[in-house]
Amino acid sequence: MGDKVLGDAERPVIEKRIESIVKEGQRFERVVVSRAEALAMFQENKFKIEIINGLPEDATISLYRVGPMVDLCHGPHLPSTAFLKAAAVTNVSRAFWRADVTKEPLQRVYGITFPDSKQLKEYQHRIEEAKKRDHRNVGVQQELFFFHPLSPGSCFFLPHGGRIYNTLVELMRQKYWEYEYEEVVSPNIYNFDLWKTSGHADHYRENMFAFDVEKAEYGLKPMNCPGHCIMFGNRVRSYR
Q1: Are 41 and 33 in contact (CB under 8 A)?
Q2: Backbone phi, then psi, for 137, in 5-degree steps?
Q3: Most exposed: 16, 58, 94, 127, by fewest CB within 10 Å?
Q4: Nearest to 89 by CA among 26, 17, 4
Q5: Beta pairing partners, 31
Q6: What pLDDT, in 10s, does the model give residues 211-222?
């Protein structure tokens, strides 16, 4: 696509093309190929080549053919596009390969389908109503908190927001007591060896905050459980 960027203006065009594909009833056909065949088929697509080369040696490489398009895919899919009774493009955005801002920019198109147009319209109505009550907008409008690019993904709580935050923390602690839980505090940063053990490194690395310190890789915790496992294993325990 070169330097062309998709925007909201292209959404109706994409949806119209989807409608024509649905009417054609194009069949999804699964094809299993060898690594050599896959590399030959996608030799002009460096992204596909990277994916193929990253697969385990014993991996089954499958493709799906639908209409004129052939692409790498695990599947499964519906038998044909005719099953997609109602479809809509929900968003178009810019993305980076492997979620790495230092790599090539790409275009991402989000879509959704429903068994009939009534369910699609009901979904679209719910989404529009939810946007009106989006806490990210309401919080800023009511001066509860704000976000800043110097700390992406982190919240700056203003005085009224701080009161709400502390009230919720107190409620949570009351529930701990009510349901007989004990409170612990674990670190926010761990060596990536922990995330390799937990499986996060294999499945979610591209969506984690990672950084190097003294030639070792560390990452911010995406959840508490792995740290709690370390706490549990810190001493010998008995079922008694």
Answers
A1: yes
A2: -85, -45
A3: 58
A4: 17
A5: 63
A6: 999 989 999 998
Residues paired with 235 in a beta bridge: none
Burial 22-43 (b: 16+ CB within 10 A, else e): beeebebeeeebeeeebeebbe
Contact 191, 216 (CB under 8 A): yes
> Could you identify the residue written with the tokens 């989000």?
110
Radius of gyration over alpha carbons of the chain, in Å? 24
Q: How far apart are CA 189 and CA 224, in angstroms?
A: 11
Distance CA(112)–CA(205), nearest Å, equals: 26
CA 94, 97, 102, 104 dihedral sign is: negative
105 and 2 in contact (C-beta within 8 Å)? no
β-strand 145-147 against 155-157: which pairing, if any?
A: antiparallel
pTM over 0.85: no
For the chain, what is the mean pLDDT? Answer: 92
Measure the CA–CA gap between 221 and 214, rounded to whole angstroms: 19
Q: Which residues of 124-146 are buried (b: 16+ CB within 10 A; e: fewer)?
A: eeeeeeeeeeeeeeebeeeebbe
Query: What letter does residue 97 receive in the DSSP assignment?
Result: G
In one-letter notation, the amino acid at residue 235 is: R
Q: How far apart are CA 218 and CA 159, in angstroms?
A: 33
Copy the structure tokens of residue 36: 């050599």
Long-range contacts of 124-132 (CB under 8 A, 24+ apart): 124/88, 127/90
Residue type, 227: G
Mean pLDDT, range 140-165, rounded to an integer: 93
